Structures are given as C-alpha cells and as structure tokens.
Input
Amino acid sequence: MGRTPLYSSSAASFRGKGRARASAGGASAASTAPAASQAASGNEACPPAAAAAATQAGLQTSPAKSRGLRAFLGRKPVLFFAGLLAALLPLAVYIGMQTAPRIPADEDIEKVVAKTLEQRAIAAPAAKAYDKIRPSVVRVRAYATAAPPQPHAKSDKPGKGGAGKGADKGGDRNAGNADKLGDGKAEAEAVRDEAQSVGSGVVIVDSGIILTNLHVVVGSKRLKVIFHDGMEASATLIGARPEHDLAVLQASAIPDDLVAATMAPASELALGQPVMAVGFPFDIGPSVTTGVVSGLNREFRAADDRQPLTRLIQFDAAANPGSSGGPLVTMEGDVVGIVTGILNPTDQGFFVGIAFAVPIESAAGAAGLSPF
Output
C-alpha cells in the first residue's frame, strides 16, 4: 500500500484555487498574503498555491503607484513644468553668454610667433663670442712691391704686347682674341705679385695697433689692413718678436668705431675648454671655427724655421693658410692667443686636426703692453 502524499491535489489545482481566492476580493487576498508569509517564516513547507497568491498580491500594488503619479500630473501640471523650467533656465543663460571663438588672423599668429622667439631666443656661446670679437679682427695683406703696379697700356702694333704673344701661340685663328688674352695674363701676374701673403690680425689698442704673425709680413715692401667695416688702410711694421713669430703693426687710419679686443690669461686655460679661431683662411672670411684646447705648453717647429716655437696652445679648431695672425678666443669673447701654425705630417699645408697659437701673454709682450 503506497504512501499518501502530503498534498493530494495537483499544482494546477492549487494555482486555480489561488486565482479563485484572488478574485474573491481584497479581503481574501489580504488574508492569503499574511498566511503565506507566516508559512514561509515557520518551519512548515509553503505550498505553491500560497506563494503564487503572495506574488499576485504584490503585483497589484504597481498600478496603484502609476495611477498616483498620473493623478499628480493631472492635478498640478503647472508646478511640474515650472520646476523643470527653473532647472533649465540657468543652463540656457550660461550657453547664451558664451561667444563663438574668434579665428586669429595670419598677422596675429606672426606677431605671437615673433614675440615668442624674441623671448626664448638664446644665442649659442660661440655666436656671442664672435659678436664681441668681430669688430677687432682685420685682414692683413702683404705686397712685394712698394707701390701698386700700374695697368699696362695696350699696343696697336702687331708683334708687341699681348697681341703678338697670342698670335704666336694660337696662329691666325686666335689673332682676334690675342689682345684680350695677353692683357688678362698680364693682369693676373700683377695680382699674384701683389698678393704675396694674406693673413689675419687683431686690434689690441683702439689707436690702430694690430697683432699678427711675423711670417705673414716678413719680406714685404707694403702692408695693407682691412677693418671689419671694409675700410682699408696702409700699415707699418713697428715691432717684431721672431722667437714667438709675432709682429706688431700700426694702421695709418682707423674707423671711428674701432674696438680693441679684450684679452684673458692663457695660463687659466684647461684641456677640453671650448675655443674659437677667427680669421681669413685662403683669404675667405671672416671665418669662424670652433674646437677645444687639446694641449698646453707645446713645441712646434715649422719646416722653414730653425728656431722652434715654445709654450704654445694646441687646439683642434680648423685653421688653414690665411688663419695665421688671427685671434684664438674663448666662449666669453676674450683673446687668449694668436694663431700661428698647423701641424701636418705630409708636405701639404692644410689642416688635419692640430693647430697652435702663441699665448696672449707673449703676444702682448711683443707690443710692449701688459695684456691685462
């Protein structure tokens, strides 16, 4: 004989009874809900019909809340929309006060960029040093003749002057250009005769006293210096110190704004300290090269000199023929030496990384001056 179930009715019958009780009225639904809660809180099992009745009772409260909100809006719509308007009004005022951004013109952008560059532009130390020394650097030219050569007069007679030479070399075919070729050659020879030596120099006294290398001016019959503003003047050799390859010149005329270089003791130089060489290498310039002090108290003997130069400053800023006599300058713009030569293990006279300068103490002493 089988066991009798606790509930002999099916789940469907219980759901049906639950719906019947719910439809019976609020009183029966209210009584069912507490009964279902009481059954759930106790130790007894809750029948499915009771749980369904409780769920149905809870769902009946939502329409009531919805009806309450619609009733409020129906009774007081003015208050609702007035509050919404009050909340949105400050936002609308703020948006209305905002102005559209102005697109800057090209002129405004250029002014801002120029002002920024002026405020932030910082010149390199070498550029500042060059600005300071530039008015004191001169080009020195030595000439083999005592006076400038006079231009050659052209000859109309055949067989003389340039025409005869041109005809001899080129025959009748070049006879028409012989005069020009002959005159051009004569002028080139005159220029080469004048440009016996080209070097650099630096003004150490604003009365026109200039320091340069002795090998730049030795053996010349006429000297000319060209100042920073392009002014040219003849110069006279007034002092020399062969043991240091130094010469002192006096210019016959000077610019009104001539500035003498400031000098600093070479004894305070240190290896690796930045320096700058200023001059006219290959008669081009003024040219500026930078490097560092790579040695002190060096000795150097030129190929054509019997006496070696001592206590020299070695540096690796580029120097070439024409740089001789120019100043060796610190990054503060002070002269610490006079460029005098380059070392090249070959017979070629160009820079390979080692150059020398006479300390300014010896250079100023050649002029009978105290450099400091």
Summary: The CA atoms of residues 270 and 293 lie 7 Å apart. The domain at 134-143+196-366 is CATH 2.40.10.120 (Thrombin, subunit H).
